[in-house]
Amino acid sequence: MMQEKTQWKCFLENISVLQWILTFLLLGLACIGLMVCLLFTSLWPLPTLYFIWQLKDWHTPERGGRRTAFVRKWKVWQHVRDYFPMKLVKTAELNPNKNYILGCHPHGVMSMGAFTSFSTDACGFMDIFPGLRSCLCILSGIFKIPLFREYAMATGCYPVSKRSLEYLLSKSGKGNAVVIVIGGAAESLLSVPDVNTVLMKHRKGFVRIALEFGADLVPVYSYGENNIFHQVVFTEGSVGWRLQHFFKKIMGFAPCLFVGERCFWMPYQCPVTTVVGCPIVVPKLTSPTQEDVDLYHGLYMEALVKLFHEHKASCGLPDSQQLRII
């Protein structure tokens, strides 16, 4: 029987989630603003030295980063997990002597399920998959932002660039579970409660990388991710729709207009269950052909659909809900 939360516990959960939301939305801008402002004060040597050091350190995020167990184990992540609550589920063993590419779906508005499950220790990834190291790959532009890049690296995030993926799959040993939110920023615009739409029919780059390095593919689905915010969806061709896509083209991500509960900032307390599927064995091919890529991309989509239907009932979805792949 679930124990009732104390007021103090509820307060800690709310504050923890609020800091995550504000970090996601504002920390990058705050870091840029702080560094620029300091340049016009007597403290100008500090940002100047940092910028020089950042240029020298420019490629570190693509060469293994600087993840720290201290940040990944912060108590705040456990409170974020408990707020919804969030859970990570294993359906098959993953061999720690191999490397994997985990394709995570859907993106949702902020990918909170993927971040909590794979970029923190709150959901117990290392206990569930002993010997494996989760590596969440995110928008590369984040690692160009001063100060913010240090925070992202500390949580064990990496750029979702080819150079970064190559390093993780070939120069970082075995036991790497490289997590890619396949739909990316474009899929965030499809995040609607009780609708399961993923963008991946033409997303095949991750399959080519898997073939080049012999990394097995693993489908992952976060049930409930689309329910934690209610998004304002613009009709195709409208001014709002065009502004979103223009911003995405320039900045690499799409701004979503969304609402939650309590002052619009707080996400709805909907359970989010991230289910890790069975691995698809992938051969190592130095120069995979388009036919090879199409074959394993098709196998991956079939495995994702099977995973979705096998676990939707246990994760609280009605039998009538379907997975739409576009």
From TrEMBL:
According to its UniProt record, this protein's enzyme class is transferase
What is a single molecular function from GO for this protein? Answer: acyltransferase activity
- According to its record, how does it sit in the membrane? Multi-pass membrane protein
Carries keyword Iron-sulfur? no
Q: What stretches pass through the bilayer? A: 20-46
Localization (cell): Endoplasmic reticulum membrane
Q: Which GO terms describe its cellular component?
A: endoplasmic reticulum membrane
List UniProt keywords, sorted A-Z. Acyltransferase, Endoplasmic reticulum, Lipid biosynthesis, Lipid metabolism, Membrane, Transferase, Transmembrane, Transmembrane helix
Which Pfam families did the record assign? DAGAT
GO terms for biological process? Answer: lipid metabolic process
EC annotation from Swiss-Prot or TrEMBL: 2.3.1.-
Coarse class of the primary localization is endoplasmic reticulum
Say which domain of life the source belongs to: Eukaryota
For this chain, the family text in UniProt reads:
Belongs to the diacylglycerol acyltransferase family.
- The identity of this protein, by name, is Acyltransferase
Organism, by scientific name, is: Umbra pygmaea
